[in-house]
Design a protein that fits this description.
This is Baculoviral IAP repeat-containing protein 5 isoform X1. This protein is mainly α. About 50% of the residues lie in helices and about 5% in strands.
């Protein structure tokens, strides 16, 4: 995802556009409109047709059911600064929007560093095993 596409996800109307093939429609509680309002954009594929990702905390959730409330499901899955702010984009100040951008970047760095740490741990285990076997 390029930077302009990434920044566009800060606006609900752009998140909503990502839900082209969302499996749930009214009267379901889990509509694409409610998903976008709860901070999600569609990140699915044929193999994961209901995968959604938060534009701030980057939490990915799937396994949605018709009766799921996106806002509640999101709030139950850990800390998210967008959920904590509890405002529509019309209610947000420029500083609050900027703060969410900073939080997104921090979350991206946490995810990237966790992946690197896991890779280093795996590499270290391989070296440890080689030393024991030599």
């Amino acid at each position: 995802m390029d930077k302009s596409e990434e920044l566009s996800l800060f606006f609900e109307k752009n998140r909503l556009k990502t839900f082209k093939n969302w499996p749930f429609k009214l009267p379901s509680a889990c509509t694409k409109e409610k998903m976008a309002a709860a901070g999600f954009y569609f990140a699915g594929s044929k193999s994961e047709p209901d995968l959604a990702c938060c534009f701030v905390c980057l939490k990915e959730l799937d396994g949605w059911e018709e009766e799921d409330d996106p806002w509640e499901e999101h709030s139950r899955r850990g800390e998210c600064d967008f959920i904590k702010l509890n405002k529509t984009e019309e209610e947000m100040t420029v500083m609050e929007l900027f703060d969410l951008l900073v939080k997104r970047r921090l979350n991206q760095m946490k995810i990237a560093s966790s992946k690197k740490i896991k890779a280093l741990e795996t590499l270290g285990q391989g070296y440890e095993e080689d030393l024991r076997n030599s």
